[in-house]
Amino acid sequence: MVPLLMTRPLAAAERFVAGLPEAARAGLKVVYAPLMEIQAAQAPVRLEGVKGVIFTSANGVEAASRETAARLPAYCVGERTAQAAAESGWTASCLGRCAGELVAALLSRRPEAPLLHLRGAHARGGIAGRLTDGGIPCREQILYDQVLLPLTSEAMALLAAQTDVIVPLFSPRTAHHFAYLCGEAAHLHLIALSPAVAEPLKGLNCKTLRVSKSPDAAAVAAAVLDAAAQLSQLEGERRAE
Fold it and tell me: Model's pTM, two decimal places?
């Protein structure tokens, strides 16, 4: 079986693996080792005067929906985030796969403002500032923190075994943390969600580093399946020798 090390927060990691084809999952040895834990800020959402909200992750949707009963138009990054917002009662629309695409779409649409970006403590893209500079007033509120975690003992044992391991990584911060923790990387097959996620990994002497064709879970999953198929084929060839 091909080892797959999942470093996302556990719920997201389990959802990712569950979305893989059943036949593919049967050939994977999945090790869950979250390197990040979501901790809610327990702060009331300040919606006074706000005409719409921005969500860049399902974590933001969950935190906001828990703190307020109001349901405004919600402009989202990614289909998964938009789906979570819609299921929580927000009038949700997906406006891109990354912060840049969302900002461009909003600047083109010119929705009723002001807007409020409900986000985690660690975020990239400067959405609120870019929209405000573009003439769409937008502020931001932190609803949760993304706390870094150490590798689990099971993950450390897997990495120490020096056998081929597939590791998908979904955020620049997690990628940087993993690069610091992983030690000898010559046996790792790393898959980055985007070029920004790949950047902290470029200094590692890994076996392969590929960037997902698009910044979404479906494209990362396709890359994982391709890497697993290649490793399974190589293993079969070695056994046949």
Answer: 0.86
